[in-house]
């Protein structure tokens, strides 16, 4: 049905406006999504593409060189539920369900084109054994076999998700909005995401299936809308201040006026809780230094709010848990906690001081040995400083909870005995604690 209608539409040379028409029955509509996550503004011509199925059973359009052209996605997974008094869809994209649908244009199509960040070309490859040379508009393909039941999520066992790269992004954004941090948002399933799912289930008492894309997208909509939005780089973004590079040697760091960001891309990636490489991947060829440039970023939402009265740093899980006055879990963060050479404390300590945008005093006699430095060094503040943008001093001297200049390594590497979080997670936690809050280290 879908394929035949598309073929008829292309043969009648339907205009772009017509291709973006919508129809009365929302649940039968589909959208054609490009590998970049944009909805096509045209209907492919008969003979230009072939049809197949990807690993998730979705219909995909492949050109004759084997390149992915588009993936069919249900329109209901893009358009948010109808709301009175406003459109919660992607800014700048028309939501037909917030207003009366436009009049039909004379063709009975159940496929439209618009915009949804829901597909990744590497996860939309044709299934082995399915036809690769069927002209678009031919008979439909057989339905995919049922997938295996979802595995139980535990912190120790990674989940092999069936989600596409951008669906995993949606999962990460949802968890981030809930205050259960997945670390950097990079569209990849890993231990930080896995631990976040377990913590979210503990916090809510609900179950979150990491393979159920429809459920994840619905939860995402209810938490604030789509995962990816457009953002226009401002003159202030491009102005910095920036530094050319960050030296490794602490003596060289101490010579800089500030340990600022090195580029607009690095700054924006941190602002939107993203891996810088993923930000660049979503915006291929973009010069981030030019004001007025519109880019794609994720929408993590506002900081979690609450009154944290107790913190547990789990060394084994490499995760920090923040609890409220009622004993309930408020937030959880992946963390780098100690190492064999410089282990974290044991037992319970308290937070003594809270410093935002702190400088750092390096003393090799009481700190670790960095390079060949033997003198006390005053290292200036900045997001690329040794402790990032936050320092929560603990009652055990020289130890603290702090940010990091390398957010992508959080939960994957060890620290010098402190608790290291991403800068944004450390900032969120700092806004919810006061001096005197206990920090318990557990194995």
TrEMBL record:
<dbReference type="Pfam" id="PF03734">
    <property type="entry name" value="YkuD"/>
</dbReference>
<feature type="active site" description="Proton donor/acceptor">
    <location>
        <position position="402"/>
    </location>
</feature>
<keyword id="KW-0961">Cell wall biogenesis/degradation</keyword>
<keyword id="KW-0573">Peptidoglycan synthesis</keyword>
<dbReference type="GO" id="GO:0071555">
    <property type="term" value="P:cell wall organization"/>
</dbReference>
<feature type="active site" description="Nucleophile">
    <location>
        <position position="418"/>
    </location>
</feature>
<dbReference type="InterPro" id="IPR005490">
    <property type="entry name" value="LD_TPept_cat_dom"/>
</dbReference>
<feature type="signal peptide">
    <location>
        <begin position="1"/>
        <end position="19"/>
    </location>
</feature>
<feature type="domain" description="L,D-TPase catalytic">
    <location>
        <begin position="309"/>
        <end position="442"/>
    </location>
</feature>
<keyword id="KW-0732">Signal</keyword>
<dbReference type="GO" id="GO:0071972">
    <property type="term" value="F:peptidoglycan L,D-transpeptidase activity"/>
</dbReference>
<dbReference type="GO" id="GO:0008360">
    <property type="term" value="P:regulation of cell shape"/>
</dbReference>
<dbReference type="GO" id="GO:0018104">
    <property type="term" value="P:peptidoglycan-protein cross-linking"/>
</dbReference>
<dbReference type="GO" id="GO:0016740">
    <property type="term" value="F:transferase activity"/>
</dbReference>
<dbReference type="GO" id="GO:0005576">
    <property type="term" value="C:extracellular region"/>
</dbReference>
<protein>
    <recommendedName>
        <fullName>L,D-TPase catalytic domain-containing protein</fullName>
    </recommendedName>
</protein>
<keyword id="KW-0808">Transferase</keyword>
<dbReference type="InterPro" id="IPR038063">
    <property type="entry name" value="Transpep_catalytic_dom"/>
</dbReference>
<comment type="similarity">
    <text>Belongs to the YkuD family.</text>
</comment>
<comment type="pathway">
    <text>Cell wall biogenesis; peptidoglycan biosynthesis.</text>
</comment>
<dbReference type="InterPro" id="IPR050979">
    <property type="entry name" value="LD-transpeptidase"/>
</dbReference>
<keyword id="KW-0133">Cell shape</keyword>
<feature type="region of interest" description="Disordered">
    <location>
        <begin position="78"/>
        <end position="140"/>
    </location>
</feature>
